Amino acid sequence: MKKIGIVITDGVGFRNFVMSDFITEAVQKFETIIIYSGLPINCYNNFDYPNIEIKELPVFKEGRLTWFFRKWKELAHLQKNKKFYGMQDNLTSGYPKSFSARGILIKALYFFTRIIHSNSSILFAEKLQFLSFSKNSITKEYLTLLKNDKPSHVFFTHQRPPFLAPFLYAAIQSKIPTSTFIFSWDNLASKGRMLGAFDQFLVWSQLMKDELLYFYPNVKNENVQIVGTPQFEPYVLDKYKSTKEEFLAKFGLDANKKIICYSCADVSIGPNDPVVIKAIAEAIKSNEITSQVQLLVRTSPAEDDSRFKSIRDEFPEIVWNVPKWILTRENHQESWSQRIPSYEDIKDLRALLEFADLNVNMCSTMSLDFMLFDKPVINTVFGNIENGLYNDQRFLNYDHFKKVVDSNAVTIAKNKQELIDQINEALQNPEKRKSERKGMIEMQVSKSLSGTSNRIAAVLSEL
Questions:
Q1: Would you place residue 400 in the very low, low, confident or very high pLDDT band (cuts 50, 70, 90)?
Q2: Smallest Cα–Cα separation from 168: which of 158, 12, 459?
Q3: What pLDDT does 45 receive?
Q4: Distance between CA atoms of 151 and 5, rounded to whole angstroms?
Q5: Spatial separation of the C-alpha atoms in residues 401 and 243, rounded to whole Å
Q6: How far apart are CA 5 and CA 33, in angstroms?
Q7: CB 452 within 8 Å of CB 228
Q8: Which phi and psi angles does 360 have, rounded to 5°?
Q9: Are 16 and 157 spatial neighbours (Cβ–Cβ below 8 Å)?
Q10: What is the pLDDT of residues 285-303, one digit of tens each?
Q11: By C-alpha distance, which of 68, 62, 93, 64 is closest to 78?
Q12: Which one, of 19, 71, 77, lies nearest residue 43 by Cα?
């Protein structure tokens, strides 16, 4: 039996690895578990495991030199892989418009990395980044912490947050083996560099393994394990089940009407959400949607619902599900990461997935959530560079989402009329894309939801 350190980075990591069955499975396979938390320790008030210690990590804030080397590393990674549309799009959107000192510095890095972006140069930039914070007081605290705890392995539940790079450095310096879980389906083919080099990797699927080996040529095939993802495991756990009657009563829904769920993105990529919500609400009022339906809107857990006030006032018939995620810490460099879900919210979401008849969203992971319950999905992309709306049509070219589009597992609505036609089609023939939805789940997730936590804990125990 070993002692494992588990790094819970943020609210989504808390949902995936604390509110799934992962902890229950892990305590049976490790003599001691230490949770190194990027969240406040009071998030774990209901924990009652004798062999688990919770240690809140002091928050690391990047200095200017560390920021510079990290930015160099990330831009070089994007330049190296810019033939992938998502990487190119991140380069384009990240190019500074201002001529501030920082803006000029970033422009210089763009020019430099456009020419020099080899794998060895990326690793050199990372080495300088780690060297820049090696003497930082927080880094020294991390080194002391690991020296005293002596975990046999440290598992990072997220591979990207830069504020955890010093903790990874401390583990490497302490000669403690490390592993990480690839956080989301879009992280490898469209996002920036990982926070550093890990010894072992846990991924969702063969597709994700292939992507990892491509984008990180130093990673060896035998060091990547396919485990599925705990992100969806609550959907097969009895503790989160509801009856349809309970769900309808809680949200005041009409049992005689079908349910359209619109699930929002956060405001950074979902400024068109109100436009689409209004389009659906107007189509219901005008009977352009031929079935008897009601609209339920689920907002993003990363924000409140304040930006929808005018829509709520104009269409009081819309039912709202504002996720019950609690902000645990303010004044954090990534404040959205400090929100954690409630048990009630996961239960609400599971019921919504099971009992809604149709989902509409803007190219989000929620497409997979609804496909797991074999529900039709429409992805709306109303904006382009000509019509003045936020250009969300560009997301169709992102590598991870292009696979969804090409699979025909979803339909794509680029305007209100297309959306209305697709809603009518999906409600009248919900089985139409059944096999395509099944194929998409098999491609993206690969492993069964049941037993996901046991599978991950077993792999970690063998590392």
A1: very high
A2: 158
A3: 85
A4: 6
A5: 33
A6: 6
A7: yes
A8: -125, 130
A9: yes
A10: 999 999 999 999 999 998 8
A11: 93
A12: 19
> 14, 36 in Cβ contact below 8 A?
no
Q: Look at the block and give the residue holding tokens 């033939």.
A: 83
Name the packing angle between helices 416-428 and 273-285 (round to 10°): 60
- Evaluate whether 90 touches 190 at the Cβ level (below 8 Å): yes
The percentage of the chain sitting over the pLDDT mark of 90, rounded to a whole number, equals 90
| Cα–Cα dist 89/71, whole Å | 16
CB 237 within 8 A of CB 451: no
302-333 pLDDT tens trace: 888 999 999 999 999 999 999 998 878 877 76
- The amino acid sitting at 430 is P
Q: In what order do the strands lie in the sheet with 153-156?
A: 52-56, 30-37, 2-8, 153-156, 178-181, 200-203, 224-226
Residues making up the chain, counted from first to last:
463
Task: Answer whether 183's CB lies under 8 Å from 64's CB.
Answer: no
Picking from 88, 66, 67, the residue whose alpha carbon sits closest to that of residue 77 is 88
Of 136, 59, 6, 8, nearest to 334 (Cα)? 59
And the tokens for 288? Answer: 């352009």
Beta bridge partners of 298: 263, 321
**Per-residue pLDDT tens over the stretch 434-456:** 999 999 999 999 899 999 999 99
- Reported as half-sphere exposure (CB side, CA atoms, 13 A), residue 404 has a value of 26
Q: Could you tell me the two tokens for 86?
A: 């998502």
